[in-house]
Records
---
Amino acid sequence: MTLSPDRVLPSPVLVEACENYQKQSYRNRCYILAGDGVQMLQVPVLHKTEEMPLSGASLRDPVRANAPERGISSVLVDYSTPWIVRTQRALDTAYETSAYYEYYRDGLFALLDARPRTLWELNLSTARFLLDKTGIACELQPTKEFSAPGSVPDDYRYAIHPKHTDTVLEDLGLARPYYQVFRDRMGGFTPRLSALDLLFNEGPDSIGWIKRL
């Protein structure tokens, strides 16, 4: 993505749509900062042969989710537990005192309440929401075929993982703090959180923080 001195130049960004789903990765989770520390928000997905209710309908489709390999775009979200309500309550508790949470809350919650059928749809809509609200103008383009890791330039698909230590931000010279509600309580800045943390704390200034990197 190219940044100009006064605005973000639109740039096409490829999003991996042809890989196999990876368990325990950022594909179905993110981290936020609450009053008692870092908290994980997780979207449950179907891991075995189950029936999946269609969003907004009473019909149910049989799902073969126990295959050895599952394409990322076909993984279904599990709505059998009230994870949406728990997620919304967690966000309310963590960010209700942040400066800009109330401006973005309803739009974000609408994405969850729409109950996208697949994890791919949920991730794509969330990514577009974050890009729009932070002011980053880019076009997300799903890949049409899988490319081996390292075979394409600027490949960050597998650079970060919640179970592995990474130095991506440091290597790119992008490690830089911003304001966080619970910064003093945590003894300093808490890195590697969801972009929601930046948006709720910095609001329209999020793009300024990104460009200053």
Note: The longest strand covers residues 29-34.
---
Amino acid sequence: MKRFLLPILALLGVLPLAAQQNATPQKAPIAAADRIVATINGETITSGELDLLYSRLGTQMRDGYEQSGGKEAFLENYLRKRLVIQEAIKASFDKKPDVQAELAAARESALFDRYIRDVVAAPVVTEKAMRDYYDSHKSEFAVPEKFRVRHIVATPAPGAVMNSSGNKAQNESEAQAKIARIQGELHTDPRMEAQSINPEARRQAVVNAFAQKAAQYSEDASAPKGGDLGWVTKGQLDPTFEEAALNLPVGVVSGMIKTQFGYHLILVEARKAGGTASFEASRARIREALMAEGAADVMQSVTKLTNELRGQSKISIHPENITDDTN
């Protein structure tokens, strides 16, 4: 066997490099749903898994996330939840009999709910009914413009928050002078003038420079995150601040902006255009609305099904064995 392999290995050694490279199998591209969005102590979460978890949220909770960071905010909370779950499993808490009983009950409840939703209620919540609802309630699926914004703020005492550098403004003139100084530092930062790189890389360079100054100098709770206020929509911020942000091009640092909170420099990191959520993205919300509208019909179907199943099944009840925990 070795004698047979040696000539082949020798032949490979004299092949042109390009031929050897062509012989190397190419890796198939990773599907979008399989891309990893987070890893927690070796446990991975893919984009598809995150989408599924997000789609299971109720309308009110999902709307809340949409107003405060969307899937990124949800992912952060989910990571914290998974950390606690990992800790519980590490301590074998999931093996306790009472916990096992609750897990079994939760599984049973989820199976019942999904069967009612997807099978029993199917004649009520039909594909056509969902399409008709979507077409006649377009305003419910409006998606407002979003922008991701960072800021650096100097707040005259007593409202100023101690930052990482340990300095904070004491009065109006100090706050203005501080912002002017930071503005000067940003203007001389070489990352702000990186003309030799592509637009996206230049934008990221500006964001990095601004975030560094925010972490160093800003006087509010967003400083450790580089002044990041997350994704916001119109109406969520101070009106003066918001007007300045809405009129800023992406990747351009504002001049000094005064609001009721102090003096700011603002950077809009990115924007997402408004529009209408697609039918597919709105399925969960539509189903929830139709289930609520047709609740009486769904309950009638559930009652009919359980009556039929009860009549077809062999059931025996032993009331003498039912304990009364109130005594």
Note: Residues 146-272 form a domain with the Chitinase A; domain 3 fold (CATH 3.10.50.40).
---
Amino acid sequence: MSAASHSVPPQPATLGVILAGGRATRMGGGDKPLRTVGGRSILDRVVARLKPQCEAVIVSANGDPSRFAALALPVVADTVPGQPGPLGGVLAALDWCSQNRPDIDWLLSAPGDCPFLPDDLAARLHAAALAHAAPLAVATSGDRSHPVIALWSLSLHESLRHALTVEDMRRAHDFVARHRAARVAWPTMPFDPFFNVNTADDLARAERLISLHQRQ
């Protein structure tokens, strides 16, 4: 039997969305993903990680989109009023995908403040979703689940809209809990690939990690 007969099925076309709507209150405000670490913005690092794994990538953020112009990516604002948080960003991305890329059936979401996302994020989440016949696959590391670092089927579109607009749901954990969700664990050594930058101390730690592990 040839090696090709053992190959895994091709990954379904996937839209990546970078959730860049946080207000960075613990860092004095502003756009946290635009802070620089290792000579590049955190957001630029996230884009570099997701682009090879996705058919296309968009940014979820409110306000003036021109501040992200250097990325040359679509910037999508919330479609639900009232600062709905990360779930609002996911819904906006699902809306955008339905309108602009109806050929895509899966959405990969990740925060804009995680500079070390793994290269196999989409592949492993897709494999888990397929194995469990699940419309959701969520990344975990250590003892933590990361519900906004996840793969979402477009079949969840109207369920999420109802949760946000009718139930006023805001916690991603709550939405994930009501659906079949596969979970995929990543090791936390030599560092957690889902480490996110929330404070000035986190920014300094990210600099050290980049220096120690030569993360480009």
Note: The chain is about 30% helix and 20% strand.
